[in-house]
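Subject: Sanity check before I submit

Could someone independently write out the structure tokens for this chain? I want to compare against mine line by line before I put it in a report. The sequence has 82 residues.
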Amino acid sequence: MPTPDSRAALADAAARLVPRSTSLRDEGLEGQETPALAHSGMRKRTKILIYVAAGVGFAAAAYSIDHHVSNITPSSLGTRKD
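---
Independent answer below. Compare away.
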């Protein structure tokens, strides 16, 4: 098993092999950007259609799941005895 010093030396050697074109701060800020659709080159109408299509797709999936479930509980069949 490598000693802690040898692991640090291996990490330093690996870091020297990969050139860094951006700083760590820039990489951290990349994850905090606004969503890709907000800054894309598409027209506003196209973006709205994408969001509407996603909403309709979600609603259709929820409707399909809800109406294909077997509702065989005693209360739904009217045979519940409290």
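---
OP: Matches mine. For the report I'm noting this point. The mean pLDDT is 75.
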